[in-house]
Amino acid sequence: LVRLRSRLSRSQNTLGQGLLSLLSREHLDEDTWEEIEDTLLTADVGVAPTQELVERLRTRVKVLGTRTPAELRGLLREELVHLIGTDADRSLHTHSHEERPAVVMVVGVNGTGKTTTTGKLARVLVADGRSVVLGAADTFRAAAADQLQTWGERVGARTVRGPEGGDPASVAFDAVKEGIAEGADTVLVDTAGRLHTKTGLMDELGKVKRVVEKHGPVDEVLLVLDATTGQNGLVQARVFAEVVDITGIVLTKLDGTAKGGIVVAVQRELGVPVKLVGLGEGPDDLAPFEPGAFVDALIG
Ligand code: GDP
């Protein structure tokens, strides 16, 4: 939590602290409620969730009467956690099945942090005593496979890669095959994400998944979204959700934005929970997403 707070606080204080200071005003008049609304909208919370939150806060503040700072903090914390939701299953399904490794596909637009996230996730799993195989199914950029392999060497996971420009689905298939042969616990498949060729991407991602499924079901399809891209990220999310069934969202670069509200917006948009957050470029900068800890980091 301390780490989460220090990573978020540089950029995100504006949301939590801003709301808290507005709520602490002696007179909560219409203008103040509008400012609260603006603060939430600026942080990319989205229109409907913002209205919902403001409505609930107004009602509860009225009932509360006089408010101590501690009461206000508690109230804001409760309502933000409620908004994010606590009943979703945010666990990652990365445990091997009886004779087969768990398979995780990592998808998203190039530049969002897919490869970095795959590397960080491998590190977490290896540190937890699991054996991990990486599949470099982004065969269109040679640099992508090199980057993944570098991560693999750094964290102690083998990387399966194909020829440059080769068939991504066959690399993914080989990676899972290798994982089975080695008795690995988890296979992480990094995929390509060139959104400008939407049809190509659709065909390709769908094919990668179908081909991998010849070995058995895919356990997780993680969609990586860059938190700094705001509403654009939501548009991307929709496109990917049309192609494959997303099981979890990874929100990256939360260390570089004051728009943490995107957590709320993207979950509403896809009906899929945020499972992990990226808090920097380093190997340890990936954290499980936990609403209470996240809100505590926001409010400080
Ligand atoms: P890909 O094209 O989706 O595979 O993206 P990369 O993994 O190559 O990441 C693109 C850039 O974003 C790299 O410079 C990463 O170091 C950086 N990056 C990835 N995740 C994070 C994060 O959580 N925080 C920050 N600040 N940078 C990140």
UniProtKB/TrEMBL annotation:
Q: How does it assemble?
A: Part of the signal recognition particle protein translocation system, which is composed of SRP and FtsY.
Q: Could you tell me which residue ranges the SRP54-type proteins GTP-binding domain spans?
A: 273-286
Which keywords does UniProt give here? Cell membrane, Cytoplasm, GTP-binding, Hydrolase, Membrane, Nucleotide-binding, Receptor
Summary of the function given for this chain in its UniProt record: Involved in targeting and insertion of nascent membrane proteins into the cytoplasmic membrane. Acts as a receptor for the complex formed by the signal recognition particle (SRP) and the ribosome-nascent chain (RNC).
Q: What is its EC number?
A: 3.6.5.4
Concerning its family, UniProt says: Belongs to the GTP-binding SRP family. FtsY subfamily.
Q: What is the protein's given name?
A: Signal recognition particle receptor FtsY
Give the source species. Wenjunlia tyrosinilytica
Q: Name one GO cellular component term.
A: cytoplasm
Write out the GO MF terms. GTP binding; GTPase activity; signal recognition particle binding
**Location in the cell:** Cell membrane; Cytoplasm
Gene name linked to the record: ftsY
Placed within the complete protein, the shown segment runs: 104 to 403 of 404
> Is the Plastid keyword given for this protein?
no
